[in-house]
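Per your request, structure below.
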């Protein structure tokens, strides 16, 4: 019992880190998803172009994201990198408050550029999320396995606990993250209903959504640092 209590406490430490990560994503995507959902209705043709640029870049850069993430993690660290990668989301949300002409114009360059930036940083943010949860799960599994297994059985215990912790932490993350759609929609609906006849409704809507996304991005700065499993084992 005495040995299991430290293990449980250390698991709680890693679980708390996953909760902080989840809250960061909840904030960033709570604002972003709501703004993105209004793209085509607010901006018509420009909205379609924005989405095409965003997801086109996202798809292409997913192929090189792991190598880029490794290099940038060494330079910036996990916390700062995630916060920086989330800032284009904030900027994209806020850019919707700027009035855009219905026909192609030079001002279209602003939202198009910001959506391209979101497409560039999205693979890094999501690959970083996966890497962070993997590190938490692996480190928690190492501590659990070391506490309860003999040297001969430790490798088997590590595999079992790694699988279990990965499942637990991913379930926790997505349980929190999936609230982002609901939260953003509720906030948008409340603002649109409350200020339906006001001339500032669009400004208030996207400034509020941008603030939510910014708070999520800043949350990443409070993440505890997690070393790679290779470093931990050595």
């Amino acid at each position: 019992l005495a040995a299991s209590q430290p293990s449980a406490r250390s698991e709680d430490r890693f679980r708390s880190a996953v909760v902080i990560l989840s809250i960061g994503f909840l904030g960033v995507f709570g604002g972003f998803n709501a703004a993105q959902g209004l793209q085509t209705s607010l901006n018509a043709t420009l909205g379609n172009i924005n989405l095409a640029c965003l997801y086109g870049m996202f798809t292409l850069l997913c192929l090189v994201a792991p190598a880029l993430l490794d290099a940038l993690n060494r330079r910036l660290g996990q916390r700062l990198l995630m916060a920086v990668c989330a800032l284009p989301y904030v900027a994209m949300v806020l850019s919707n408050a700027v009035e855009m002409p219905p026909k192609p114009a030079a001002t279209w360059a602003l939202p198009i550029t910001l959506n391209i930036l979101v497409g560039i940083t999205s693979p890094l943010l999501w690959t970083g999320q996966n890497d962070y949860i993997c590190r938490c799960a692996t480190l928690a599994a190492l501590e659990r396995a070391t506490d309860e297994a003999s040297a001969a059985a430790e490798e088997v215990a590590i595999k079992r606990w790694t699988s279990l912790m990965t499942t637990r932490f991913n379930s926790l993350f997505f349980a929190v993250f999936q609230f982002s759609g609901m939260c953003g929609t509720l906030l948008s609906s409340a603002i649109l209903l409350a200020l339906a006849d006001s001339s500032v409704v669009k400004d208030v809507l996207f400034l509020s959504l941008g603030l939510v996304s910014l708070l999520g991005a800043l949350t990443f700065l409070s993440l505890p640092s997690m070393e790679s499993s290779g470093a931990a084992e050595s």
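The chain has a mean pLDDT of 86.

Regards,
D.
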